[in-house]
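Because showing beats explaining, we let one protein speak, sequence and C-alpha cells together, and leave readers to judge.
___
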Amino acid sequence: MQAKALASNCVYFHRKVFKTANSKQTIMSLLFSEYQLPAPNGPLKLANRIVIAPMCQYSADHGRATDWHLAHWTSLLNSGAGLVILEATAVTEEGRISPGCLGLWNDATAEALQDKLGRARKLAPHVPVAIQISHAGRKASSAAPWHGGQLLDSAHGGWQALAPSALPHLSTEMPPTELDAAGLDRIKNAFVKTAERAQDMGIEMVELHAAHGYLLHQFLSPISNKRSDAYGGSFENRTRFIREIFDAVRAKFNGVLGIRLSATDWVEDGWNPDETADLSVRLRSAGANFVHISSGGVSAQQKIAIGPEYQVPFAKTVKDKSGLPTIAVGLITEAQQAEAILQRGDANLIAFARAFLFNPRWAWQAAAELGGVVQASEQYWRCLPREAQSVFGNVKIGMR
C-alpha cells in the first residue's frame, strides 16, 4: 500500500484530497497534525495524532524495569509517534497481572523505571511519555502469555488475588478475596502514590486503567461486581471507586490525566457504551483531560464482533457525548484508515499497539504515504529511500 501511495500524486479519503510528500503541493494530513491535550500545568503538545498504546512486556524483575525496557522504550521513542504510553504498571505488588509485570509501588521500582526511562529518553528525540497505572484485581497472579496466561498458584509463584467480589474470572479458578473498606483505601492511596512517583520522574501524562477486565473495570461491571454496599449495585455505586480514585489522583497530579475504559463487556446485561459515555461526562467534570476507548476483557462469555475499527463507533459515542479528547484503538493498522477516522471526526487521536511491535517504524512509513514529517535520531537520517526523503523534514546529510 505504501509503494502504491508513493507512486501516485493523491490519496483520497471521503472525497478529500491529500497530496503525498513527493508532490508539488503538500497538504498535511490530520494524522500528522499537531494536537494539544489540556492539563492543570499547561497543555501538552503532541507533534502528531499517533499514540503508541500500552503493551505489557512481562519482562520486569519483581516490578523493576530491566534492560529489555530500556531497549524497547528507546525503539518506541524513535518511532515517530506523537505520544508513547508505557505498559500497564502495577500500583501494588499484588496488583501485577503476572510476576513479570512492571510496577511503580516503592523506591526500588521507581528507581529502576526512572533509570531505564531516563536513559531511553536521552537516546531518542523528545516525545511526551504517559504511563498507564493499574491494578489487575482478580486477573492478577497469572502466567505470562507465552507460558499459557493461566492463574498461578503459590507453588508456581502466584499469590492471592483481590477483587470487588469473591468471583473468579473463570469458574475453574480460585476465587479472589473481596476487598473490604481498608483494602479499598489502601489501593486508592497506592494509585495516588504511583501517580506522584511518575510526576517526580518527569512523566507528562497518566492513564488510569479501567479496561480489559482489571480491577477498576471489575468494579464498573455488574458481571464482576456483586457488592451490596456503596460500591455495588447501581451505576452510581459501581462507578464510585473509580471516581474516588480519579479525584484523589487529580488532586496530586498536575499533568495530563485520563482513563482507559472498556466501552462494553460484549455480554448481555454487562457494562455498556451508554454507561461508558455517562462515566466519561462525570470524569470530565472532575478534571479528566482525555478518554481512551477499548472494550471487553471482564468475562469469558464475551462475544466480540471483531473486525477493522470495531471499537471506533464506541469512541465516537463517547467523544460526542462527553466532549473529551478521545483516543480510538483496535484493529486500526493502515495509515489511510487512521486518517479517515480523524477526518470523520470519530476520534481525536489514534492508538496503535501490535502494529508497532511488528513494525517499529510504522509512523515513518505512514508519514511517507500521507506527506507527514516525523522526528528521528540523527543516526537514522541516512536511511530514507529516495521517494521518501522529506519524512524527517529538511535535514541535511554530508557524505565523505
